[in-house]
Amino acid sequence: MKATLMYGAHDVRVEHVPDARLVETTDALVRVTRACICGSDLWPYNSMPASPIGNRMGHEFVGIVEDAGAHVRTVKKGDLVVAPFAWSDGTCEFCTHGLQTSCLHGGWWGGTELDGGQGEAVRVPQADGTLVALPVGPDHALMASLLTLSDVMGTGHHAALSARVQPGGITAVVGDGAVGLCGVIAARRLGAERIIMLGRHPERIALARAFGATDVVSERGDDAIAQVRALTGGLGAHSVLECVGHGEAMRTAVNIARPGGAVGRVGVPQEETIPDAEATFYANVTIAGGPAPVRAYMHELMPDILEGRIEPGRVFDRVTTLDGVPDGYRAMNNREAIKVMIEF
Ligand SMILES: [Zn+2]
């Protein structure tokens, strides 16, 4: 089969690899029908040291179960399924409390040991705790939105929950990538009255407004902080969704939260420390968040997609084939595309 490998910064290749196959009796074999490239894939795309081995890529996918081990009970051959960006057993202490990204027997896709979603097929460990069946066919009109349950919609939702978005409150979203845009959807869905999008790319801003953003701040750094403060009577936002991960975004986020407010961070941190510890201490700002347990949110968010209340699939503004994946990385890295979907 063919799959995507990254050999170093700006070195993504689609190559023949050994066919995915069942190993454990709790595995499923999934033939991928849709996948995508993630903003978090761009961190190694810009920084990975050259390697002769290559890392298998992709952690967001939808596909059809081709085979299942003897102990798999919840999905069967022929089911269309969506996979979360981390696999999990569904039964351990953390899974039963809805934190599947800390599963004691789970892990992450790709790397040098496991298949990734940007390939023709995937061996799915812990299939019962990982996969969720979709009640539609593989070419359903809402497939792009259903694919976002793998990561960005669930991650935006996690940012909103971590930032304690409440009905009637003011939410600010730092980052106009796919996760930030889904964060706008999530904040609106949870009842935020005002949603301030911090971003500057015109097409992304337009989508943010379509998703429910009421205000846009296109300045950066101290000017952005001043602008959000001005928009909130000098007080700051109740809830801030940090959807980028680098230090400047986090510094902005903690400085636009009002006293007693909360920052929900879902951007993978690119620095070891969180800025302005003293200021946030005196303001009683809660800083929460981490890798979203999107598996826990799939059943809650799916009806909103199927019944047309939310359209997170609009974040996909480019579609490619597997062979077009290297160019998809380039396009996302150059901000020519918000998010690239791969059709098989
Ligand atoms: Zn678990």
In words, what does this structure look like?
There is one protein chain. It is built from 11 helices and 18 strands. 52% of the residues are buried. Strand 1 (2-8) and strand 2 form a beta hairpin. The chain is an alpha/beta fold and 344 residues long. The structure holds zinc ion. Zinc ion is lined by residues 88-89, 92, 94-95, 103-106.
Outline the fold blueprint:
Layout (H helix, E strand, L loop, with lengths): L1 E7 L2 E6 L11 E9 L5 H6 L7 E2 L4 E8 L11 E4 L2 E2 L19 E2 L12 E4 L2 H4 L1 E2 L9 H5 L4 H11 L7 E5 L3 H12 L4 E5 L3 H10 L3 E3 L3 H11 L5 E6 L4 H10 E9 L11 H6 L3 E4 L4 H13 L9 E5 L4 H9 L5 E5 L1
Parallel strand pairs: 11-12, 11-14, 12-13, 14-15, 15-16, 17-18
Antiparallel strand pairs: 1-2, 1-4, 3-5, 3-9, 3-18, 5-6, 6-10, 7-8
Total beta strands: 18
Rg result: 20 Å
- Structural class designation: alpha/beta
For the biggest sheet, the summary is:
7 strands, mixed
- Please, how many helices? 11
Ligand inventory: zinc ion
- Average pLDDT taken over every residue: 97
Spatial gap, N to C terminus: 12 Å
Question: What letter string, H or E per element, gives the SSE order?
Answer: EEEHEEEEEEHEHHEHEHEHEHEHEHEHE
The percent range for strand residues is 25-35%
Low-confidence stretches: none
The best one-word shape is globular
Helical residue percent?
25-40%
